Amino acid sequence: MSNSAASRTRHGRYTRRWILRAGAAAAAGLAGGPAFAPDRAAAAGVKRGGVYSGSLDADPASLDPYTTASEGVAEFACYSYSRLFMLKSGPGTVKGSIAVVPDAAASYRVSKDGLTYVVQLKSNVRFHAPLDRTMTADDVVFSWDRMNGRVKGTSPSIRLTNLNMVESVTAIGPLTVVFLLKTPYPFFTGRLADPKGLVILPKEAWTTFNPAERMIGSGPWIMGQYTPDTVVQFRRNAAWHLGPELPYYDTLTLSIIPSYATRLTQFQAGHLDALNVEGADLKQLKDTVPGVQIYETPEAPLSVLNFSPHEPRWDDVRLRLAVSMALDRDAMLESAYSLKQVAQAGFPVARKWHNNVPAAFADYWLDPKGSRIRAKAAAGFKYNPTAAKQLVAAAGGPFDTEFHYAAANSRYGDAYRVIADLTVQYLGQIGINARGIEEDYNAVFIPQTGEGGRFNGLMYIPQTRTDPFAHLQYQFVDPGHPLYGHWSHPTITDRIQKIQSLLDPAEIRSQILDVQNDIDEAMFIVPMEFGAAPSFVAYQPYMRNVLQYQSLGQGGATENLPSYWSSR
Asked: Which of 80, 159, 217, 489 is the most exposed, fewest CB within 10 Å of its CB?
């Protein structure tokens, strides 16, 4: 019996009466997740109003959140659109936390077998004008249909792979939605919190308005003027369901400034309220902006080197291991993140290496230099150019290949590009002569190379996920994925699928840690060092709540920004 058929058989045991009973319990607050409320203590001395002056490195590839897997599009969508859940943020939240709290959801309930989620919506979630109406369960179902390409004029979204464990989404009442899963998923609410997953659009999309031209959602910010390559403005949504205190700012002005040097100068001059700052500039910033506030991010995102699905040479595990062993990971971290200057600026430095789960997810990350990794798996991470060169020769090398990476408009920053340049150099030393191909992020790198898997040689890309299992499921269980689908390894796939069916958190953690040993020994993808060192965000001295409200991923416009305010 197929997984899908078995799933339908199991679902058949749950009557409509059970689902309705679970829906009533969810409405009463008897659910699996905590309710979210603004931090009242922090709100006591707030000075409301004013303009937040931020920046974007580039325009979003689209305003429609379902047209692409772009992280920039996911980040942009969170200004105006809601999700059912979001990551926890605020005082007392552990840095890098993957704890989930409701957004548009009020509560939820899960069946014992983990296959049925009944989600109750808040009754005060309203779409922006000109719709100005309450969100209903039909909007959630509509968004699911749009993701599947069942809305007229749309095609299935590349983001559907992020929710491929879902069998169906059904409304059983005005504010009650039922998700039936094909198989259990240990971090399902985390997957719903991912901005690259189910973003809730109103059912009027593609009829009353075109979401590729205008964002009409229920999020904290209402989109105003947008001049490509110049500026985008948002105003406060006074009817936001997580208010009425929030958001504190009246207006957001996001200038589109591709040049990091220009953004740095603008921040130092007081024209920007926030800046993603490079480690080499930390000391200068502390000296030139007295009282500047610096947030040190956790070690994320994960970044990986993909092997082309069209070149049989990469089926040889010796070549894949050689690529990994050619890389001096500590030297890459030093060059990309200026770790000596970071230490001189007064920040502690840890040289962590990503695995198939990013270092930020400490409870699930198998440390390549730690005690739990097997010796054979650890050997693939160690810098050993002599052995790597021998493996290339044994596999028929030396040879030429391509190395695909994103252009500056990717928003990945300078550290990404430094590591890209170093990778080409390291590969050349072992007999893999890689020709660097810099690709426009919006036009080529994401839609063709990434989402289409249309490349030869190697592709270097970051991956941002809001749950640790997502990295394993996305890379090794989806046979239809254009990049990872060709790595069909029965033992590893079976192990990962078994983890997906587990319900005990301790066992899930243990198995996620251990399966990384199997994956590392095969080195189907090469974990890279972009994101493995902390990056830094600088805020002006007058900004408030900025160090307390931080979260992983692209949801910060919803999870964090509404709680920021200015004391000026």
From this structure: 489
